UniProtKB/TrEMBL annotation:
It comes from Pichia inconspicua. PROSITE patterns: UPP_SYNTHASE. Its EC number is 2.5.1.-. It comes from the Eukaryota. Belongs to the UPP synthase family. Gene3D superfamilies: Decaprenyl diphosphate synthase-like (3.40.1180.10). This is Alkyl transferase. GO terms for biological process: polyprenol biosynthetic process. The keyword Transport does not apply.
Length: 303
């Protein structure tokens, strides 16, 4: 049975009740362990999902938008602080205008829904922040997303970053030009330019925690010019062979579960090593006052 049919079955009263109980149990299981602070998603596979299921392209993108809501609900319920969704790459402007318009309309609609009263943002305390080059956006889209940002600005528990339109190269270039202009205007000393200053001038503006997990669905093992700076030495990159409309609550839960499990092992190993260090230090402290030289020799042969 396809994921599309399963998603339709989930609307049945009995099925949704059981599903909700299972989800609540799994959320509580995850809360007993470490939780990632920032998860980022490359939502890939909407078009392929529509083709595989003989659906219109627009329907693939619509189901992808629904999947995002399910993913966000899972993340925020277990306690993930920040989530970033790669909604639209600057390179995507090369697609057909009809598809671009569809993505823009769906994104605008979904952001309006989840930010409205008693919806996802209110329920979980989520602030929405758009990161990306806004100069590419039509005036009506820009006005609508800025309204969403303003409407959710009072929330402080979680942040949903929407990368739209975005590429890492553009982000780095934006930060570079911001710093160069300030140096040129005499507002900034060139000697003070460092890594932290670069980060403060990204579209994120240092609002986000470092990325713990980056997920790119559909099985493609490439980053598509995304989060090239924000991924650090401890970031985990997942490439599930799942199309984005199929990547919903349970896929998200399993991704976080795996991270939490291995994070627990790392923490336990670190604690064991710390105990060993403390034990050695305790032994050294106990015997530090003993004389450095051995006592004089005595012979039983002497009369």
């Amino acid at each position: 049975m396809s994921t599309y049919l399963l998603s339709l079955l989930s609307y049945l009263p009995g099925v949704s009740l059981v599903d909700g109980a299972i989800q609540s149990f799994l959320v509580n299981v995850l809360k007993t362990g470490p939780i990632p602070q920032h998860i980022s998603f490359v939502m890939d596979g909407n078009r392929r999902f529509a083709k595989n299921n003989s659906l219109p392209l627009k329907e693939g993108h619509r189901l992808g938008a629904e999947a995002l809501v399910k993913v966000l609900d899972c993340c925020f319920r277990v306690g993930v602080r920040d989530v970033t969704a790669y909604a639209f790459s600057i390179e995507n402007f090369n697609r057909k205008s009809d598809e671009v318009d569809t993505i823009f309309s769906l994104l605008k609609y979904k952001l309006a829904v989840i930010s409205s009263e008693n919806q996802l943002c209110d329920l979980h305390g989520v602030r929405i922040k758009i990161i990306g080059n806004r100069s590419y956006l039509p005036e009506d889209i820009l006005t609508d997303i800025e309204l969403v940002e303003e409407r959710t600005s009072q929330h402080a528990k979680h942040t949903l970053f929407i990368a739209f339109p975005y590429t890492s190269r553009d982000d780095i270039w934006y930060s570079t030009t911001q710093i160069a202009n300030r140096v040129s205007n005499g507002e900034l000393d060139i000697e003070s330019v460092d890594e932290k200053l670069y980060e403060r001038n990204f579209y994120y503006e240092t609002d986000a925690a470092p990325v713990d997990i980056l997920v790119r669905t559909s099985g493609h093992t490439r980053l598509s010019d995304y989060m090239l700076w924000q991924c650090h030495q401890d970031s985990v990159i997942e490439y599930p062979n799942t199309l984005w409309p199929e990547y919903r609550f349970y896929s998200t839960w399993f991704t976080i579960f795996k991270w939490s499990y291995f994070k627990t092992l790392i923490i336990e190993d670190a604690e064991i090593m710390q105990v060993k260090k403390l034990s050695r230090a305790d032994v050294n402290a106990r015997y530090k006052d003993l004389p450095k030289l051995h006592p004089p020799f005595a012979s039983v042969n002497k009369v």
